[in-house]
Amino acid sequence: MDSRVPFARRALEAEFGLALEAVTNEEVSRAVTAAAGAAEADWKDRAFLARLVDELPIDESSLFRNELLWQWLAAELPAWLDASMGRGRTFRALSLGCSSGQEVFSVAMLLVSELRRRGVLSSSAAEFARVWGIDASEARINTARLGAVRAWSVHRSALQRTHGYLSPDAEDPTRFLVDPSVRALTFFERRNLLELVENPSDLGGHGLVLCQHVLVYFREETAVHVLRRLAQGCDPGTVIVLSPVEAHLFTQVDELERLPYVGAARRRGLTTATLPPALRSTPRVAPAPAPARAIPAHDPHAAAEAYVRQASELVAAQRFDEALTAARAACFEEPGHLVARFLVGQTLLSIDAPQGRRVLRELSLEVARLEPGTSLPSAVELSVEQLASAVRLLLGEAP
């Protein structure tokens, strides 16, 4: 056995809480060799450990992996989506340990299909549903952002689920390109799962959280801790999905109740939040089928102003819990309107810094995807460049 293997295991245990239960010594040795190159491994060097994380995971991810899960999701997701649209909110899903994006793209394909059945045009789909992917590997996140998947990942999936959403890459015959209608719903970010679950404000607002084949890399006590913190941070009613081999962990977390699918549980409690009257919006349900978008238009500036007034009143009255509850929902009341979201994030910073930074971080990623000079969908006169500069300023980043 490579003498560096025990050091690698201990270093990753200290940095990420990993036990590497699902990885052989040979695989650890290969990853160390690839990450270290000709140089000696520095086990305290975070950059080296980050490279090791890039090399270590087993690439088994494929589109629509585990057909039984997707059959169950295809049956359950329409009701969740309808409930979210009926409340005038954006349905949000989160994939933890998303690798190169295969699971994220799979959920997004399912959502796009459901939205099309409801008469929602592809250009408007991101107003109704979004999927976030988080992974500790910078290399995998960068690959996911390209919107390309390897051919083997496609060939192992049910072709009827990917039909119309993939096209061969003319420049690289070993991969397929994900359709823009699907990519428009997806966002990716490099995060350490252990750090993420310690920030509950980063977990709220999601109706579905997938954490499959991730906890197998942790010692069981760490895996249970992660799942418990995940359950505590998610909104009541959130559905959490593990792989079947990890589903036994549900029995050790009181905050969750099992669902019919063997790898899924729901956060106990109410499935809807009570909003102050000023924050309630007209439901944005589109009739099905509809030849064109049949969704009421909104005034984002007025919505943002109403939220700011309501939040200010709650903060002035020192009713911070109510302010945070309202803020979490209000962040997604006008999801297509960036200026409204900016005002929401700005106000949140004065109430709860982590929550405000989360909203602004999401907004920053969206703004970065816009072409310079793009018109902002708001009554407020503001350019994309000005908005990006304002977001960076609030986040404490250099302009």
Summarize the structure in words.
With 399 residues, the protein is an alpha/beta fold. It has three domains: 5-55; 67-267, Rossmann fold; 296-394, Alpha Horseshoe (Serine Threonine Protein Phosphatase 5, Tetratricopeptide repeat), CATH 1.25.40. Helices cover 45% and strands 10% of the residues. The protein contains 16 helices and ten strands. The chain has helices at residues 5-16, 25-36, 46-55, 67-86, 102-117, 138-145, 151-155, 159-162, 180-183, 193-196, 220-233, 300-316, 320-330, 338-351, 353-368, 384-394, and strands at 91-96, 129-135, 148-150, 166-168, 175-178, 186-190, 208-210, 239-241, 256-258, 264-267. The strands form two sheets. It has a seven-stranded mixed beta sheet. It has a three-stranded antiparallel beta sheet with strand order 3-5-4. α15 (353-368) runs antiparallel to α16 (384-394). The protein is globular. Mean pLDDT is 76; it is low at 270-298 and 332-336.
Task: Give a brief outline of the structure.
The protein is α/β, with parallel strands linked by helices and 399 residues long. The protein contains 16 helices and 10 strands.
